[in-house]
Amino acid sequence: MGVVVLGLATAFLVYLFTAGDFGGAKRSYPLFARFGQVGALAQGADVRVAGVKVGTVSKVTLDPATFFARTQLAMDPAVKLPTDSTAKITSDGLLGGAHVVIEPGGSPDNLAPGAEILNTQGAVDLLGLIGEVVRPKPAPADTGAK
Amino acid sequence: MTLAGAHWLTPVRATGRLALAALATVGAIALFAIRGLTAMFIGPWFPGQALRQFIAIGFYSLPVVGLTAVFTGAALALNIYTGGGRFNAEQIMPQIVALGITRELGPVLAALMLAGRVSATIAAEIGAMRATEQIDAMRTLSTDPFRYLVAPRMAAAMIALPLLTLVADIVGIGGGWLVATLTLDFNPVVYARSTVDFVEAWDVGSGLIKAVVFGFIIALMGCYQGYTASGGARGVGRAATQAMVSAGILIFAMDYVLTTLFTER
After folding, report:
1. Is the ipTM of this complex over 0.90?
2. B-chain residues near A17 (CB < 8 A)
């Protein structure tokens, strides 16, 4: 019994630290998307089309030249997306659970593996928006007056 | 009429007797602890005894601790989900569960299960040896019972409990993860990552420091109650119960004190 507990604990610990690391990217093709703001989007988050999971976010990095967040998506090979598709970051709740939603476009050509989705819409900083409503920023002319 | 014979003094006398008895007990336990610690740090040691105790205390407590932790983690996850839902903040559940388990529930639950399992066993074992005069025989053979009986148990408990706490932390978070992914539609990978990214070394470390202290309390109360047991079989039973109850209460009290020290302000 003790061995079983130790084994399960070790297995879960390994899972905790390796979850979201996509080494071989088995049976998936990569797509890239740039966002101005990814918010709470993390590695391992879902990629959905029409609410159905079709892939996962395999990497989130910062492009040091443009300061945009560059995400790599591991997509289900069965799902081919038109080149003019739109990638959006939305969330389940108010404070998290961010995932990528792709709205397929109408182009006859499909995105090739390794291609970049050009139409993107980053995460909405909800708390920032609330903050602006509660305490609006002063007009540009007023800055420095204080 | 002399003062000593006055009836109206009886309650005062009883209070005084109780207070003195309580102070005497605290002093006796403190002296016992010092003698035990001295024997633990200054040899000669009995490594074989310590290893046997370590296996009895640590390894054989794994199933109990694991089961306790997994169910607690699961229930905690559901409760925090409910609480978070009132602020539309269900998504921070993994972080709160991880913090609650590593800082508080892991060490305290492991310690409580050990208080029930180990403290009572130690008290009964040493109490029976006291009742059958084995401890006196040991002293006659110039073997210090503190070195042979008390120190190995203290060392074993102080090493075993932090390790058990680590297991309880992992299994407890695993329980929360199971419930979150199976019944609450959390993404398993995101749950795992938000836990790993959020937990700091100090969250786990402070829990482990607690566990060392709790391990000491468990062994101390077991040894003390067993060592001072008197009155044959009934005395042994009483010692086992008292070891468990006093260890439990001291664990909660020390938990509050340590948490106060660990809370930055």
Report:
1. no
2. 196
